[in-house]
Amino acid sequence: MLGGTEDILSGVEPVRALATALGAELRLLDDCGHYPWVEQPDLFRLNVARRLTQLDPWTPVRQS
Q: Which SUPFAM superfamilies match (predicted)?
Protein backbone atom coordinates (compact mmCIF):
# COMPACT_ATOMS: atom_id res chain seq x y z
CA MET A 1 0.00 0.00 0.00
CA LEU A 2 1.09 3.55 -0.65
CA GLY A 3 0.06 6.50 1.45
CA GLY A 4 1.16 9.99 2.32
CA THR A 5 2.65 11.26 5.56
CA GLU A 6 0.52 14.40 5.30
CA ASP A 7 -2.84 12.69 4.66
CA ILE A 8 -5.45 14.84 6.44
CA LEU A 9 -8.45 13.03 4.96
CA SER A 10 -7.94 9.59 6.47
CA GLY A 11 -4.79 10.12 8.51
CA VAL A 12 -1.77 7.85 8.70
CA GLU A 13 -2.87 5.61 11.57
CA PRO A 14 -5.99 4.20 9.85
CA VAL A 15 -3.85 3.46 6.79
CA ARG A 16 -1.32 1.65 8.98
CA ALA A 17 -4.13 -0.34 10.63
CA LEU A 18 -5.58 -1.33 7.25
CA ALA A 19 -2.17 -2.42 5.95
CA THR A 20 -1.65 -4.50 9.09
CA ALA A 21 -5.11 -6.08 8.82
CA LEU A 22 -4.47 -6.98 5.17
CA GLY A 23 -0.92 -8.18 5.80
CA ALA A 24 0.26 -5.61 3.27
CA GLU A 25 3.51 -3.71 3.04
CA LEU A 26 2.99 0.01 3.63
CA ARG A 27 5.13 2.75 2.17
CA LEU A 28 4.46 6.32 3.22
CA LEU A 29 5.60 9.07 0.88
CA ASP A 30 6.93 12.26 2.47
CA ASP A 31 5.35 15.62 1.61
CA CYS A 32 2.29 13.80 0.30
CA GLY A 33 -1.35 13.74 1.31
CA HIS A 34 -4.32 11.55 0.36
CA TYR A 35 -3.62 11.39 -3.40
CA PRO A 36 -0.02 10.23 -3.92
CA TRP A 37 -0.52 9.61 -7.65
CA VAL A 38 -1.36 13.33 -8.04
CA GLU A 39 0.88 14.92 -5.39
CA GLN A 40 4.03 12.81 -5.93
CA PRO A 41 3.49 11.17 -9.34
CA ASP A 42 7.15 10.27 -9.93
CA LEU A 43 7.55 8.60 -6.52
CA PHE A 44 4.18 6.90 -6.93
CA ARG A 45 5.12 5.42 -10.32
CA LEU A 46 8.55 4.39 -9.05
CA ASN A 47 7.07 2.53 -6.06
CA VAL A 48 4.40 0.83 -8.18
CA ALA A 49 6.98 -0.22 -10.79
CA ARG A 50 9.30 -1.61 -8.10
CA ARG A 51 6.48 -3.62 -6.57
CA LEU A 52 5.31 -4.98 -9.92
CA THR A 53 8.81 -6.22 -10.74
CA GLN A 54 8.75 -8.23 -7.50
CA LEU A 55 5.61 -10.17 -8.47
CA ASP A 56 5.90 -13.65 -9.91
CA PRO A 57 3.72 -13.75 -13.04
CA TRP A 58 3.34 -17.53 -12.69
CA THR A 59 1.77 -17.41 -9.26
CA PRO A 60 -1.99 -17.86 -9.61
CA VAL A 61 -4.24 -15.23 -8.07
CA ARG A 62 -6.86 -16.56 -5.67
CA GLN A 63 -10.43 -15.99 -6.73
CA SER A 64 -12.92 -15.04 -4.01
A: alpha/beta-Hydrolases
